[in-house]
UniProtKB/TrEMBL annotation:
Sequence ranges assigned to domain Histidine kinase in this UniProt record: 257-450
Compartments it resides in: Cell membrane
Membrane topology note: Multi-pass membrane protein
Classification via CDD domains: HATPase_UhpB-NarQ-NarX-like
Transmembrane spans: 203-225
The UniProt record lists the keyword Mitochondrion: no
InterPro entries per UniProt: HATPase_C_sf, HATPase_dom, His_kinase_dom, sCache_2, Sensor_HK_TwoCompSys, Sig_transdc_His_kin_sub3_dim/P
Protein name per UniProt: Cache domain-containing protein
Native species: Saccharospirillum mangrovi
Keywords linked to the UniProt accession: Cell membrane, Kinase, Membrane, Transferase, Transmembrane, Transmembrane helix, Two-component regulatory system
Amino acid sequence: MNLKAKVLLLAILPLLIAVGLLTYLGLHHARNLADQVLAVYEFNLVEAKKQALKEQMDIAHSAINIILDDESLSDAEQQAAVKHLLTQMRFGEDGYFFAYTQEGVNLVHPTIPEFVGQDLFQFQDTTGNLLIQALLEAANSGGGYHRYIWERPPLMQQEDKLGYADLIQPWNWMFGTGLYLDSINTEVEKVKTSFDTNIRNSFVAVMGVLIITVLLIIMLGLAINMHEHRLADGRLQELVQKFMRLQVNERRKFSRELHDGINQQLVSLKFRIELALKKLENEDGPHPSVAELNIAGKVLNDTIQEVRQISHNLRPILLDDLGLKPALRALKESFSERTGIEVILSYGLDDIEISDDVEITIYRLTQECLTNIEKHADANRVSITLRYHADEIHFEVADNGKGFNTRAATRQGIGMVNMRERVEVMGGTFSVESQLGNGSHIMAVFPGRQRRR
């Protein structure tokens, strides 16, 4: 093997190995990440269906309770009125309600009227699922969900369906409704197809870059000198760094969307538990479920706090969409509405270009300051000032509260330490002034940027 061939081989083989390894790792990671995203996406879609079912059941319960509370009707008249109500109630394109006795006798079925009066206790769907028994079990356990196969009108095709069943007191009837899940399967398949296309396109692009690069190396041959080798190494390193940054950004975006969705669902679940507790407390005598619901509420509160702590370091969506000024205004209005404390915002950075890092730091400082004021200051007035002076961004928060011992706060308070570290990481300075009885004054100074032209 001559010198040219050796140099060419030494130039091509490392590139082939590096790009091949990076391509394999990238595709493997992209596939795993896509599978995780699809699983979470499908879970969230199903949870949304469950929430929609629960809301429709709540509406039906409210309408049924109106009939049950009408003392002018006899028991038979109330039963007839409830049956008529469930027969007439519809939602969406194919949403309806059904009702059964505890023995599995159908009382209401708007789409298949011939079922009314039949004993369907042993009825099975196409998978052998004893769905009436399963729905009765869910209803008798306090209300619950069940997934099964059912005919979808008007074509009466067999479709995957999610049902929810509960009881009608005082007759111990099981009634419920359901939503078809074909739309979820369609949406998941669309997203999966999109992921597969993106992964395939990425692979083609990488292979194209690889082929072009190999051809260039072959054409250049011995013309590549040591300086060009260093340039090639630099470009490869830049490509790797760019690829890794892209991965980190995508993972961060996915994490933020995931946690925001989970947090909203947890809060909604918390309200449902609290509503259930209030209803149970209004009944005569202590209900055995109250203690369990209280424990569930405590666990849910802990979970919400953990999710919020995880998402605490993520960039606020309002800051991304509208910028620092609207984000601070929204933070101020939310704080004033919640606490009744007057907040005056003076924003003097309209013509200043602020980096993303400084923006999020200012936003987090404002959050921390307002949280401390709400918890400890006993203030009724807060001022937030941002101004630009001598190529520096000045941030100040002052309140008229009871003040605090700055040395003790610095030693014991994690919040103050975190604020100071945030500012110093950005190359700025942080200071606190406070005296007992005279409020507090927090200041931060960041290196400025050139004004926008």
